[in-house]
From TrEMBL:
Keyword Transcription regulation among UniProt keywords: yes
Keywords: DNA-binding, Transcription, Transcription regulation
Limits of the HTH lysR-type domain: 12-69
Pfam families in alphabetical order: HTH_1, LysR_substrate
Lineage: Bacteria, Pseudomonadati, Pseudomonadota, Betaproteobacteria, Burkholderiales
The protein's name: LysR family transcriptional regulator
Family to which this protein belongs: Belongs to the LysR transcriptional regulatory family.
Ranges that cross the membrane: none
Amino acid sequence: MKPSYAKLQSKLGPQELEIILALQRGRTLAGAAERLKVDTSTVFRAIKRIEQDLGELLFDRGRQGYTATELGRVLASHAERIETQLEEAREAAFNQATEPSGLLRITLTDTLLHTVLLPVLAPFAALHPRIELELATTNVLVNLSQREADIAIRATDDPPEHLVGIRLGTVRSAVYAGKDYLARQPAGKPLAEMDWIALDDALPDHPSQRWRRARYPQLAPRHKVSNLLAVAGAVVNGLGVGVAPLAVMREHPHVVMLDGPLPELDIGLWVLAHPDTRYLGRMKAMFDFLRGAVVLPA
């Protein structure tokens, strides 16, 4: 009699693992279908068939989509390793010395995209014409282990231990006001009595929020916005004063620094990747480029 795992071995191949991994990453049938370039019914039938063959559920179905069970996560992890090994084989076949190529997905916040990455990205694109870029903005550190992105650029002093990366520098911040706004204020008006622009209640623990509450405990911001770029934009356009990174405001002709730089708000800027993919040619090219191209104001 064959051992109990014989059926699993005969039914579970690279194609099945690819489907399981796609559904774990996509979280919905539509998301998996988009990754696999098939229709949703194909994914649904394939997952149902695999589960029937194995006699085990691989995904729990719910309103939020498909969530992998413990076995589903284990199989997806094996699929990721196979995917990485295939990429290693392709890299070896084309030789690391050849021109880097392929899709490079980078995740970062809106603020870092517009003030740190985009200003230096054109030379990279010209230097590496075979690399395609996909830039996704979010305040959440996406799961690089599940290949939701290849590289994450984040402002943090505590990067996750399971990722590898390099520190590009220190993001510094200060209190700014627009020149037009200051011109409308009476001479000598205290900073605490001005119209403050702050992040909204979705980010109550942002360092700029904590600093303001500690420095001016009685102050109630007049205006609230959703991100630091919006704070900077409101300051530039004369709505009041606010805390913004020097990298956003650098040498802007219409603003004045009223307080800072503030050492309490200094935070490291990191470029991060999963250790299994850090060595790939396109990844190495971006890491090496950012190390020399990003210069943060002091």
